[in-house]
Amino acid sequence: MPTIARLLTYLPTTDAAQSLATALIDARLIACANIGAQVTSLYTWEGTREETPEVQLWLKTRSDLAPDVMAKIEPLHPYDCPLIALDEITVNQAYADWVNAQTR
């Protein structure tokens, strides 16, 4: 079975997620993006406890493009220290073929 790369990041708003996803799709670095529902993130930042609403952004691309996608996300992301998580997932052949056709 074929594999593709799946990346995850969190953004402060749906608009920010759409903007980032659009830039990556327009650059043909990803085949698709899924913007998830709002979540509440709890963390400590610069010594202060935070509770922040965020949206999940899932991105799918070819495995060989994952480093390029990660490199492109960092300067476009509104956070100083964004999470950019990467894993590989097994997918059906038709979906893998579509991802390959949509990316450069």
UniProtKB/TrEMBL annotation:
Gene3D superfamilies: 3.30.70.120. It comes from Sedimentimonas flavescens. The lineage of its organism: Bacteria, Pseudomonadati, Pseudomonadota, Alphaproteobacteria, Rhodobacterales. It holds the Pfam family CutA1. It comes from the Bacteria. InterPro entries: Ion_tolerance_CutA, N-reg_PII-like_a/b, N-reg_PII/ATP_PRibTrfase_C. Belongs to the CutA family. SUPFAM superfamilies: GlnB-like. This is Divalent-cation tolerance protein CutA.
